[in-house]
Amino acid sequence: MNTNNKKKNNILYILACIAILIFLVVILLYDRATDTRQQQSAYAVSQWTDHKTVFNMKKTVLSGTITVDNSVGNVIAFYSIHQNIQVYVSSKLIYEYPVVNNNPLSDSPGYCWNFINLPYNTNDIQIVITSPYPPYLKNVPTIYIGNDFSLPAHIITKDILPFALCIIMLVLGIVLSFYHLFISRNINTSGKLLKLGIFSIFLSIWSINECSLTTLLLKNNLVTSYLSFLSLMLLSFPFAMFVQTFYEDESKVWNWFCQVDLAQIAICVLLAVFDVADLRESIWTTHIMMGILAVIILVQSYSLVKNGGHSRTVKIHIACIIICVITLMLDMFGFYTGTWDGNTFGRLGFLTYIITLGISSARESTSLMKMGQEANAYQTLAYTDQMTGLNNRTCFNVDFAKLSENPTDVAVIDFDLNNLKYVNDNFGHSTGDLYIKSCGKIIYEIFNGIGKCYRVGGDEFVTLIERASSIDMTHYMAMLESSVDACNRDNKDAKMKMQIAYGCAMYTPETDKNLEDTYNRADKIMYANKKEKKERQKFER
Asked: What's the CATH number for 42-148?
């Protein structure tokens, strides 16, 4: 690529980044982009901040008054995480989530956006929060006040960035996986792109279900909760496989980790099924496995750099790994304390890793594919007869040697184009070449579907057939005769009628010591057929 094209591409990349940035800014500021009081009212959202909060070992209670009028709306909304919710107005229960916890695998009610309609007056509000997990009792949600339009709009605006990052990761995972399938059709790959793609898909599923916007769009809170835990549990396995492949490390530690990780996942699921410990309660084992994996990766990275394997790509990978480890630690901290929301920062860290390593791996795979295509092209050229397009003598020798290792159920058909010397001597070599091409075309059209066709000499052709016992050779020889006759009828002005002599022999252990003996028998049969056809031709003259 020349310098001008590089500059143009760089400009396009910069413009694309600017366009994306503008798009995100517009979305984030969308609720502020208003011109009239009516619009301001429609988008207005306030917070209930003057409530009293009381904690104890069993529940958290938020209490106070809310004056509802038309200026903002009569709906309160808040996001609950692993929390049971009861809302009272003037000591009367008006809202409860969940009404019945029918979760068969967990005590958790999942994640939920709670929307409660209030009467248009001053209301004494009491929100009672309980949870099967004590750390979440102190996770006091932010209470928003608005209407049926402004609140969803506010939630979408607030959470669109982390949600968009999750969608990007999902798309990247799918693209990387399909690109692997495309590449693998042409070359044998280590599966690097597929492993990174699957990791990205699992990561995106976990991240999407951790976004509060998802529970607004998907009403089945239990499904989002299950998907969140299960995808998190499955993260380490493809990630470990990717890093092992990326580092080209054959250490047994990777296999050990993958086996233990799969066993840990299976045990956690079984504990949940038999109601011993739900997925939330056993997730700490997954976090331990992630910590072990992080240590393994850092140790292997250090060892790689120490031993001289410090290429630019490896340095980039190590830097990305450090970002991911920091992100993971922050997410774990937030999980156990309920004080950290890593939706944006954490997803950006992982997205940086996936994009960086995805580009690197894609470039490597593309380069290997091009090298493979060039090698295949050279091999095709080396194994192809340039005149007829059939396989040449070199290819025949290679295939014949392979089949000779186990010649059982192999048949050899030997062909000879009669009168080629006569055509060359009397009508010129250009006419002889056309004669050879026509012969090769007929043999290919008839026998290519059941075997592999070769031109092994000037007027000599061979077809090798595997699993020959299931094929009616008499039928195909009759097709050959018919095709030659049709060719002669269609070319009445031809200076010489075509004649193809043939001989077919199948490997027989009783008579053949090896496949070479089978070939010799086919050759003898061919010469007998050649003699017969020449005698018939003299008679017809």
From this structure: 2.60.120
d(CA 174, CA 129): 39
| Candidate CATH numbers 1.10.3720.10, 3.30.360.10, 3.40.50.300, 3.30.70.270; the one for domain 393-540 | 3.30.70.270
The residues of the chain scoring below 50 in pLDDT are 1-2, 4-13, 15-16, 19-20, 22-42, 342, 541
User: Which position has the token pair 């609140």?
Assistant: 151
CB atoms within 10 A of CB 539: 7
CB-CB neighbours of 86 under 10 Å: 16
Helix (H) or strand (E) holding 127: strand 122-130
User: What is the torsional sign of CA 47, 51, 57, 59?
Assistant: negative
27: region left, alpha or beta (phi > 0 left; psi from -120 to 50 alpha): alpha
Under 8 Å CB-to-CB from 43, ≥6 apart: which residues?
A: 31, 32, 34, 149, 150, 153, 154
Cβ contact 223:102 at 8 Å: no
What's the order of all strands across the beta sheet hosting 46-47? 46-47, 144-146, 75-81, 111-117
The dihedrals phi and psi of 249, each to the nearest 5 degrees, come to: -100, 120
Between CA 292 and CA 295 the distance in angstroms is: 5
* Percent above pLDDT 70 for the chain: 78
Q: Report the Cα–Cα distance between both ends of the chain, in Å, rounded.
A: 67
Q: Residue 425 corresponds to which tokens in the numbers above?
A: 């001597």
Say whether pTM exceeds 0.70: no
DSSP 132: S
Q: How many CA atoms lie within 13 A of 236 on its CB side?
A: 30
Distance, CA of 362 to chain centre:
12
Contact of 173 with 204, CB cutoff 8 Å: yes
